[in-house]
Each structure stands twice: as C-alpha cells, then as structure tokens.
Amino acid sequence: MPAPAIKICGVTTPAILDAVIAARADHVGFVFFAKSPRHVPLRDAPALAARTEGHVSRVGLFVDADDAMIAEAVAAARLDVLQLHGEESPERAAQLRARHGLPVWKAVPVASAADVARAAAWVGAVDLILFDAKTPKGTLPGGMGLAFDWSLLAGWKARAPWGLAGGLNPANVAEAVRLTGAPLVDTSSGVESAPGVKDAGLVAAFCAAARAA
Ligand SMILES: O=C(O)c1ccccc1N[C@@H]1O[C@H](COP(=O)(O)O)[C@@H](O)[C@H]1O
C-alpha cells in the first residue's frame, strides 16, 4: 500500500509552516472561518502563501462561506484547493469548482454507517470526500480532535478519491491507515499543544508515522 498523502491543517504561523514543509507534508490547510482558533486573517495569507511556493499545496478551509469571502481567500492565499467543511450542497460545491477552476474537497461528518452511505451524494460533485468525525451540536464542525469508528468505512467502496480526518495524531495515524487504507490523512488538533497552537515536533512525528504506516 503506498504511503498516504498528508495534510496538516490550521497553520497560522511562518514557523509552523516551515515545520510542515520540512516534514514533507503534501498539503497545508489555512482556515478561513472566524470562529476557529486557527483562523487566518486575510492580511496574513499572502506572506504564508509565499513561503509555501514549490513545497506544499495550499488548501483553504471554509464553513458555509459566501462568494466574496472565498474569492478574497483564493486570491490572498493563492489557494490550490477549496475544502468545504459546512453544510454546503453538492450544487454549491460544483458551482465553486467551476467558478474558481480549483479542486473542491468536501468534509462528510460521520457517526454511523448511514453517514458513510450518504457520502455517495458527493461522488462526481467534488474532487475528494473527506470523512471526518461528526461533532456535537453547538461546537465547531471540525478541528475538535474527535475520531469516529473507523470500521464504519468498511462500507465505503471508494468510488471516489477520499481521505480520513478527525482525531488523528502521531500515536494513532499508522493504525488508522492500516485499518482503513486511507489514501490521504488530515490532522489539526492532533499536532497541537493547545487549541490553535501547533507543535513542530508533533508535526514531524505525525508525518513520519503516517509514512511508516
Ligand atoms: O480546524 C478547525 O478549527 C476547523 C474549524 C471548522 C471546521 C473544520 C476545522 N478543522 C478540520 O477538521 C478536521 C478534523 O480536525 P482534527 O484533526 O480532529 O482537529 C480537519 O480536516 C481539520 O482541518
């Protein structure tokens, strides 16, 4: 089984961006969602984007964002991918893909086998389906460090590119890849010392563990 692609999400500082690049992650995620402790203000995005050039692809994470917000972030961070993490519809995803000419990833919240089955609605509308843990009502729709029961993915027959998120960290990512065969793994809280505070050592450990899986 080839090593999974790796995305480190919620990067907000040049120092951690350098750690992500040094650890040879494939994707870095910038969160454009004001309620998140990992929110990147638009004014900070150009400098972060410039640092990534030629090293890592830039994924912009949005939660039910409007057109203006997404267009500004695409320009400021020179995004390569749009990740939708809210209640966007397949039609909205397809519209954004056409408008920006960028791949669109959609997070699908999972707590049951039915949630995995519902991911079929996204096949064809997006470029990658990201299975993530369903979070409690009233909390952030992701970035909570919560894992779901990975065995639920046994019902997913991989009819589309997909990835695994939710509570992944250096200690469990190898097991997650072994059990699910995920072609892409995505983490945020699992490489932090506190919400929104990334740890360069944990970033390196996560990438090494994912690659060794
Ligand atoms: O990171 C956030 O703050 C965030 C906010 C709103 C939606 C999604 C968010 N993060 C994404 O959630 C998954 C799982 O994160 P974790 O590893 O469990 O912390 C991942 O894709 C994050 O990028």
Automatic annotation (TrEMBL):
Task: Could you list this entry's UniProt keywords, alphabetically sorted.
Answer: Amino-acid biosynthesis, Aromatic amino acid biosynthesis, Isomerase, Tryptophan biosynthesis
Provide a Gene Ontology MF annotation, just one: phosphoribosylanthranilate isomerase activity
User: Which Pfam families does the record match to this protein?
Assistant: PRAI
What EC number(s) are associated with this protein in UniProt?
5.3.1.24
Task: Provide the reaction this enzyme catalyses.
Answer: N-(5-phospho-beta-D-ribosyl)anthranilate = 1-(2-carboxyphenylamino)-1-deoxy-D-ribulose 5-phosphate
Pathway membership of this protein? Answer: Amino-acid biosynthesis; L-tryptophan biosynthesis; L-tryptophan from chorismate: step 3/5
Give all residue intervals belonging to the N-(5'phosphoribosyl) anthranilate isomerase (PRAI) domain.
6-207
Name the InterPro entries on file: Aldolase_TIM, PRAI_dom, RibuloseP-bd_barrel, TrpF_fam
Its family remark reads: Belongs to the TrpF family.
Which NCBIfam families is this protein grouped with?
PRK01222.1-1 (NF002295)
Quote the protein name from its UniProt record. N-(5'-phosphoribosyl)anthranilate isomerase
Upper taxonomic lineage? Bacteria, Pseudomonadati, Pseudomonadota, Alphaproteobacteria, Sphingomonadales
Query: What gene, per UniProt, encodes this protein?
Result: trpF
